[in-house]
Amino acid sequence: MSEVQNFDVVVIGAGPAGYHAAIRAAQLGLKTACIDAALGKDGKPALGGTCLRVGCIPSKALLDSSRQFWNMGHLFDQHGISFDKPAIDVKKMVARKDGIVKQFTGGIAALFKANKVSAFYGYGQLQPGNIVKVKQHDGSEVELHGSNVIIAAGSDSIELPFAKFGEHIIDNVGALDLEAVPKRLGVIGAGVIGLELGSVWKRLGSEVTILEGLPNFLAAADAEVSKVAAREFKKQGLDIKLGCKVSGTEVKKDGVHVSYTDDKGAAQEIVVDKLLVAVGRRAATKGLLADGTGVKLNERGQVEVDEHCHTGVDGVWAVGDCVRGPMLAHKGFEEGIAVAELIAGLPGHVNFDTIPWVIYTEPEIAWVGKTEEQLKAEGRAYKAGSFPFAAVGRAVAMAEPAGFVKVLADAETDTILGMHLVGANVSELVHEGVLAMEFKGSADDLARICHAHPSLSEAVHDAAMAVHKRAIHKA
Ligand code: FAD
């Protein structure tokens, strides 16, 4: 073992939370190291975490490819465009996705170099005294001391005891790398990952059945949004079965047999060619902490932190998916930056009230702030205004009129409390709500801001006007 190398900041994990922390710390003049254990498909180290390798970016690449394919069969005709039967080359589509992943993971390595972040490739374990022992891929070990250590170990897919991952039962990693369109795809879990990856393969021709344990569809979203989304998914042929408790799987010659009880308590079975298990993710903290570090894990395996992402152990912080809060890349980005700034003596902060949520299905779903159901449960008086895309010229011109925008505002002060959207490109539009809420804006503020015509953003404008019952384009 070589002698201990000293840094101002040592980051464990180079996913969204870790690489943001490392680069920001280096920008602030702190001598920084970042360790990551992950390997890419080519067996070489790949920075960027779940998000860049097997999460946000590759899933959006496949969502976009499959959307183009689906539109050829379902939208182009309305524009008067016809052609011979569309065909999909899955290997080429996946290769395009792999190219994008390589470009972005390589980009993080280049950013580390440009910002003088020292990258270490291997598995890091925190020891007492802010030492991180790194077992590198070549078998050698190094010890890094950080005046500050930032744990950004991220998360892994949850495996069900009766559905072990293998060739036919897969998680997100497998679902992003299928070599052909499965005739029948089963999905356990109608959450973000299940819906997005289920949509990819449905659009390419799979018969997709999604089994969800909860009785309500997309319970975290505003109920009106969930209702419209469920209707649109049904039209696309996604078979979403709610209130189903999956109890077992068996891989047989004719496919994976999945047994479950339905919402009426009756025993059922489906047979599928591939089964995607998307029941959530768990903090990747197993083996991360040696004895005696003082860092605590909660019952869900997450690193315990305060509102500033501090663990309570001098100089040890934790950010991203391995701590409490939503498992979203952009939440990790902001925590990583905030902690780097706090270490440098600056006022780092993350506002959890304005973190946007997006589901990249067709139509897209997005929201920020409170839902109507949450406001009712809190007993808070509010006003609501909504506006349908069917009355927005741009959406109709695009032949994508499904969905609406809803603005919720405090009944007395008019401060915006939430914005809920379902429709085309709402992953972009939601940021009007984020910005307005961050600046404590009111529905009237938003209603008085000039929006370009024709644009989808007019739905946001008119929904804000509708809060005061003065939407121009609404009868
Ligand atoms: P991770 O990205 O998980 O990175 C942690 C890194 O640390 C990994 O590279 C891991 O190898 C490394 N590591 C862990 N332990 C050690 C150790 N002891 N030593 C060395 N290295 C270690 N979020 C969004 O916001 N938008 C999306 O559209 C979106 N889509 C998603 C789609 C899918 C299919 C999935 C699975 C996730 C998606 N997410 C999305 C979630 C997003 O990927 C995560 O929230 C985000 O990656 C978390 O970032 P992180 O830095 O905390 O952890």
Automatic annotation (TrEMBL):
GO terms for biological process: 2-oxoglutarate metabolic process. Disulfide bonds join C51-C56. Its cofactor is FAD. Signal peptide: none annotated. Residues 7-336 form the FAD/NAD(P)-binding domain. Its EC number is 1.8.1.4. Keywords: Cytoplasm, Disulfide bond, FAD, Flavoprotein, NAD, Nucleotide-binding, Oxidoreductase, Redox-active center. It holds the Pfam family Pyr_redox_dim. NAD(+) binds at G189, A190, G191, V192, I193, G194, L195, E196, E212, G280. The active site is at H453. It is found in: Cytoplasm. It catalyses: N(6)-[(R)-dihydrolipoyl]-L-lysyl-[protein] + NAD(+) = N(6)-[(R)-lipoyl]-L-lysyl-[protein] + NADH + H(+). The active site is a redox-active disulfide bond. This is Dihydrolipoyl dehydrogenase.
